[in-house]
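Per your request, structure below.
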């Protein structure tokens, strides 16, 4: 795959996630022992179409990214992202959210919430969302998340996120992956966790309060940037998040 993406007036080289970067979270460890260190997926960060768009993004501490996940298998497990949580907003007990939109292909989003932020192996909620082209999916505060491509086509998805933090990968890494693995026969529990509830299957939903509507290119919210304030200051939108899922 070409590791360069043209977007607006810029070209961006990919940050490539390699197989060996993921070795702690791959289910099929027997397969991994003899697998070569191949490229898995491609992240194009901090994209903008015009210099004016970039100025708006930087002023509002927001970032727009695109990720491309080719179809494939990791042994018997479908290809996926490494998975991560987000830290708390400074001066708040609320963690940063994120929003995704499927541009091409189909995505399976796994969202998981810990019972206690200090115990990564006790999960109180797991949400599975299957999303297709144009769908938007919000990852609310407190949820870690993994994206899986279980289709036979490449997945291309975009995200908006606050640019003031770095994602937290260690919590999922030390548990050897998310609460569930998606393999050829379906979802199976990750036995590294002490408690995992049954998963809830939900559909993508529009959030007009945030300007997030299926089929509407969410990049265009750069022209109505206050709609994305929930990404910077989620503590001001707790009522919306509580009724979301």
């Amino acid at each position: 795959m070409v590791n360069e993406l043209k977007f607006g007036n810029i070209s961006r080289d990919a940050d490539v996630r390699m197989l060996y970067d993921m070795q702690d979270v791959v289910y099929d460890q027997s397969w991994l022992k003899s697998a070569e260190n191949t490229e898995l997926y491609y992240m194009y960060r901090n994209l903008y179409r015009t210099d004016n768009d970039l100025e708006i993004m930087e002023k509002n501490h927001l970032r727009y990214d695109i990720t491309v996940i080719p179809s494939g298998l990791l042994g018997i497990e479908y290809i996926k992202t490494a998975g991560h949580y987000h830290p708390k907003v400074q001066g708040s007990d609320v963690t940063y959210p994120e929003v995704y939109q499927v541009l091409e292909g189909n995505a399976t989003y796994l969202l998981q919430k810990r019972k206690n932020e200090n115990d990564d192996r006790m999960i109180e909620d797991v949400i599975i969302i299957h999303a297709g082209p144009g769908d938007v999916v919000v990852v609310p505060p407190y949820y870690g998340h993994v994206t899986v491509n279980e289709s036979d086509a490449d997945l291309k998805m975009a995200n908006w996120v606050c640019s003031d933090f770095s994602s937290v990968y260690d919590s999922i890494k030390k548990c050897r992956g998310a609460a569930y693995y998606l393999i050829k026969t379906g979802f199976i529990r990750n036995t590294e966790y002490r408690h995992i509830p049954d998963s809830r299957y939900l559909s993508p939903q529009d959030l007009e309060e945030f300007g997030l509507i299926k089929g509407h290119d969410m990049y265009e919210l750069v022209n109505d940037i206050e709609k994305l304030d929930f990404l910077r200051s989620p503590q001001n939108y707790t009522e919306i998040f509580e009724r979301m899922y």
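The chain has a mean pLDDT of 97.

Regards,
D.
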